[in-house]
Design brief:
With 119 residues, the chain is mainly alpha-helical. The protein has five helices and no strands.
Length: 119
């Protein structure tokens, strides 16, 4: 991958990481989190214990999803630092530019990602 392209992807990944960290901080106790906003939206439709359980489950699911996304972004930044960014971690082929533009944290080519998801 050419140096200007790599720099562009790194910049995009760093911005995504900053945005994600801000969302995680909010989810974990900043201004009203998405989980609390969602729970408030549905308040009055469930008993208090069920509402608390729903809120907790939603918060845990969001946290898990966003933590996994953060790991993928950090992995992409690490591959960039090691000089392996843009290469499939499974087969070593070059990941197409279109895929990297759409998903800059992609670690596999389409074929290897599809095979992983089908397994």
């Amino acid at each position: 991958m050419t140096h200007p392209d790599l720099h562009s992807y790194q910049k995009q990944l760093l911005q995504q990481r900053d945005d994600l960290r801000a969302r995680l901080n909010q989810l974990r106790g900043g201004e009203p989190s998405r989980a609390l906003a969602s729970a408030a939206h549905f308040s009055g439709h469930e008993d208090p214990q069920a509402q608390a359980n729903t809120e907790r489950d939603l918060e845990l699911a969001l946290d898990e999803h966003e933590t996994a996304e953060l790991r993928r972004i950090d992995g992409a930044l690490q591959r960039a630092a090691l000089g392996t960014y843009g290469r499939c971690i499974a087969c070593g082929t070059t990941i197409p530019e279109a895929r990297l533009r759409a998903t800059p944290d992609a670690e596999r080519c389409i074929d290897c990602q599809s095979a992983l998801e089908d397994a």
